[in-house]
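This protein record is not my work; I was only asked to verify it. Would you go through it and say whether the fold makes sense for this chain? Here is the record exactly as it was handed to me.
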Amino acid sequence: MFECEIDTGIPRPYICWYIRNMRKNGRIQVAYLGRCSISKWNGVQFLTTDETLFNKNDVINPKDWEQEINSLEAFFKGIDLPESIKLNAWTTLINVQSFLDSHFAVVKANADNPTFLPYLCRLQELKKILL
């Protein structure tokens, strides 16, 4: 948000408000994760409103959360889990079972809340790796 605030002159709280509304309406998505040139933080979300860049496979209708959560739980219960695994270039899971327990607790407690969609997406990402 630092870069966006500097580039546009719009204060970060307002940017966050707009992004929240755009996420609710499916008009914005994470294009990639990178490093903020201002704060130097890694794993910063770079967003896009260009629908041609949207990853349609990762978009889930909030109404389908319960079904997706149940499907993921069934998948993970039916397989042998590794102790640790590299989820992506920036995330290594040291304790896969602990990751699953915490992420399922979050998505169940916050189902249908788009703010917590990254938790569901990480569970989906782990499933793709383990297939």
In short: DSSP finds five helices and four strands in the chain. The radius of gyration is 16 Å.
